[in-house]
């Protein structure tokens, strides 16, 4: 159990999620002194320690209470939960939020030269994967009688190396499958990075710190999706201009020095402004149209 009074957050040390995790913590206002080889990084402005580990270890560290929070892919979370369930180990976590990075899918794939295949083809075949529990559950649900070959890496080379007939691996752009002459089949699981919490956490100070971080997380997400829009609009066409603007927010109108016919319009929009809409605004006589990113938001 984590007995320190500082909130412990587990993130991936190096890999697909590490940069996004570090920049998320920064956006949440957590200042870290990250030295390359250190396992633990202490925050300099909050009672927070960040543990940098392999992603496979993150769910277990949170489930066992060694860490209070963790950021991990849902693929690794679901696999660890199933594995621990099978052996009767603690596997509960509280999922606090899905995050907007680390999107990938766990999909079946087989050598391209075999062409399109139905599910029946997998009967009697060997499928290589790093996610045996998720795959076995899928095979059972689909009534497929295939054997599972567990590999911790380089799964995509398994068919060529004669280790398996097919694979079940993570896919994002599909470039890895293509480079290895593999054809993508069914998606078994869609995954994003997510923020998890130890299910038994009951330290009031830590819980109140988490309650401070969560609205910030929401603010970071809203800010990413929102834009600040500024433009000059002819007073006579104001209603038509407003009707074209996305989102439901009320615009702010400001008078323009030296202009009787135009006003400046500012608004926060939950969406971006597409080129087509900007062209329509221009056609109504609007000008100086600016669409700007927002860094932080709090309602
Ligand atoms: N191509 C991808 N695009 C986006 N996210 C991905 C991609 N591949 C994997 N991920 C997500 O990022 C997580 C970490 O992937 P990575 O390849 O860095 O893991 P790893 O090699 O197992 O790293 P570690 O050394 O920490 O065990 C995956 O579990 C998944 O959730
Ligand atoms: O569909 P793609 O965009 O090609 O992405 C998929 C690849 O990305 C991940 O590996 P990663 O590149 O992180 O390296 P790793 O296999 O060494 O973990 C994953 O394991 C796939 O191999
Ligand atoms: Mg890993």
From TrEMBL:
InterPro entries: ATP-PRT_HisG_long (IPR020621), ATP_PRibTrfase_cat (IPR013820), ATP_PRibTrfase_CS (IPR018198), ATP_PRibTrfase_HisG (IPR001348), HisG_C (IPR013115), N-reg_PII-like_a/b (IPR011322), N-reg_PII/ATP_PRibTrfase_C (IPR015867). The lineage of its organism: Bacteria, Pseudomonadati, Pseudomonadota, Gammaproteobacteria, Alteromonadales. Residues 54-219 form the ATP phosphoribosyltransferase catalytic domain. Catalyzes the condensation of ATP and 5-phosphoribose 1-diphosphate to form N'-(5'-phosphoribosyl)-ATP (PR-ATP). Has a crucial role in the pathway because the rate of histidine biosynthesis seems to be controlled primarily by regulation of HisG enzymatic activity. Its cofactor is Mg(2+). Residues 223-296 form the Histidine biosynthesis HisG C-terminal domain. GO terms for molecular function: ATP binding; ATP phosphoribosyltransferase activity; magnesium ion binding. This is ATP phosphoribosyltransferase. It catalyses: 1-(5-phospho-beta-D-ribosyl)-ATP + diphosphate = 5-phospho-alpha-D-ribose 1-diphosphate + ATP. Belongs to the ATP phosphoribosyltransferase family. Long subfamily. Feedback inhibited by histidine. Keywords: Amino-acid biosynthesis, ATP-binding, Cytoplasm, Glycosyltransferase, Histidine biosynthesis, Magnesium, Metal-binding, Nucleotide-binding, Transferase. Gene3D superfamilies: 3.30.70.120, Periplasmic binding protein-like II. Its main location: cytoplasm. PANTHER family: ATP PHOSPHORIBOSYLTRANSFERASE, ATP PHOSPHORIBOSYLTRANSFERASE ATP-PRTASE. Its EC number is 2.4.2.17. GO terms for biological process: L-histidine biosynthetic process. It is an enzyme of class 2 (transferase). GO terms for cellular component: cytoplasm. It comes from Pseudoalteromonas luteoviolacea (strain 2ta16). It is found in: Cytoplasm. Pathway: Amino-acid biosynthesis; L-histidine biosynthesis; L-histidine from 5-phospho-alpha-D-ribose 1-diphosphate: step 1/9.
